[in-house]
Amino acid sequence: MASTTGTVPSMSDLIQAGANDLKVEMKADSQLQDLDASKLHITQSTSLREVPEPNSEGVWGSKQCSDHMIKVIWTADHGWHAPEIVPYGPLTMMPTASCLHYATSCFEGMKVYRGFDGKLRLFRPDRNCGRLVTSSSRLALPAFDPVELEKLLKAFLGLDGPRWLPKSQAGNFLYIRPTIIGNGEELGVQVPAEVMLFVIAVPWPDLSTGQKPGAPPKAPGLKLLASKDDIRAWPGGFGYTKVSANYGPAFLSHMEGRKRGYDQILWLFGKDFQVTEAGASNFFVVWKTKEGKTELVTAPLTDKIILDGVTRRSVLELARERLSASSKDLPAGVEPLDVVERTFSMLEVEEAWKEGRLVEAFVAGTAYFITPVSAVNFRDTEIEIPMSNGDSGKYTAIVKDWLYDIMYGKVQHPWGVIIEEKE
């Protein structure tokens, strides 16, 4: 049966809860200034940077950022200062900066797309901007109005977008990294008195194919190595946020997996091998129940172990809307499915595989978009995941196409937010 979501906190609930915690404290001083995009000052670069060719070595290097960046300072005695768009360049901070010692930093990952209609779009930027408030508040860093950050993003990308995503290159994107760091110079376990919000844009490879230029052809699908002793997140922790401390400690397991020929780690939790995330992406499985029903299953948000991914939420919403038995949008010849958010284990996945009930699996996230999973190594057993379309599963391909069409303007949808460009 399709699960209900009445007890599952929405992203809006998490955003509001995190923002409220800090706003209560901030209201004690009514003089603190809120983030205000209307005060934006732009200093245009006089030395433009080289734009790499699509899917080139420069793109795969992921460090050739666009011409400009957003910078906004917050201080404890003033609040948010006037935001700036300035030429891309180094940041300056003291060696005692809080983020260097206590991981007081968080970020978002999003993309801006050059549509096939010639327009630039962000995909559900309100979700990313709001989630950054949640992450910042979890670190006791300042909150802000996410609407104001979205305005700043539009101004920034309206400036750099035309050159870095020209209309002649429809179907390409830039990766956007909004980041908040505690750069106050007080050495000690305390909330930093100064914080910086900055945003950069960088050409990014299409990780859903994983095909580097000049490299041997790669078989379709990701191969995942299920974790054994290492744990990514735990109940009561901060796995539901994008704080930087969630990511660095995972590098060791990731590199060990790469040495064994796997693309990502499938993070498990507990003695029952509870499935959480795959790398930094949400994990989905499609299987037949023992009663013969088809289900799309993913881990729930209830324990705050996994990230409330924007792509994850979009997959769930589209699947409920278009793949249910009662949907008028159900594609011809496609069997309807139930959408289930619940705790499930690798033992269940393994059992479904052994009994021939495993249909397909995929990961969803900004970096990897929608990428099929071809295999999972669990307790040294290689579980082969069916890919009925040859290079992916059927449902994986359907959902990916739906999202692709929204992101690149093939269909008009409220999730695709158009950016006004400065030609």
Automatic annotation (TrEMBL):
<dbReference type="InterPro" id="IPR018300">
    <property type="entry name" value="Aminotrans_IV_CS"/>
</dbReference>
<dbReference type="InterPro" id="IPR036038">
    <property type="entry name" value="Aminotransferase-like"/>
</dbReference>
<dbReference type="GO" id="GO:0052656">
    <property type="term" value="F:L-isoleucine-2-oxoglutarate transaminase activity"/>
</dbReference>
<dbReference type="GO" id="GO:0009099">
    <property type="term" value="P:L-valine biosynthetic process"/>
</dbReference>
<keyword id="KW-0663">Pyridoxal phosphate</keyword>
<comment type="similarity">
    <text>Belongs to the class-IV pyridoxal-phosphate-dependent aminotransferase family.</text>
</comment>
<protein>
    <recommendedName>
        <fullName>Branched-chain-amino-acid aminotransferase</fullName>
        <ecNumber>2.6.1.42</ecNumber>
    </recommendedName>
</protein>
<keyword id="KW-0100">Branched-chain amino acid biosynthesis</keyword>
<keyword id="KW-0028">Amino-acid biosynthesis</keyword>
<dbReference type="InterPro" id="IPR001544">
    <property type="entry name" value="Aminotrans_IV"/>
</dbReference>
<dbReference type="InterPro" id="IPR043132">
    <property type="entry name" value="BCAT-like_C"/>
</dbReference>
<dbReference type="InterPro" id="IPR005786">
    <property type="entry name" value="B_amino_transII"/>
</dbReference>
<feature type="modified residue" description="N6-(pyridoxal phosphate)lysine">
    <location>
        <position position="242"/>
    </location>
</feature>
<dbReference type="InterPro" id="IPR043131">
    <property type="entry name" value="BCAT-like_N"/>
</dbReference>
<dbReference type="Pfam" id="PF01063">
    <property type="entry name" value="Aminotran_4"/>
</dbReference>
<dbReference type="GO" id="GO:0009098">
    <property type="term" value="P:L-leucine biosynthetic process"/>
</dbReference>
<keyword id="KW-0032">Aminotransferase</keyword>
<keyword id="KW-0808">Transferase</keyword>
<dbReference type="GO" id="GO:0005739">
    <property type="term" value="C:mitochondrion"/>
</dbReference>
<dbReference type="GO" id="GO:0052655">
    <property type="term" value="F:L-valine-2-oxoglutarate transaminase activity"/>
</dbReference>
<dbReference type="GO" id="GO:0052654">
    <property type="term" value="F:L-leucine-2-oxoglutarate transaminase activity"/>
</dbReference>
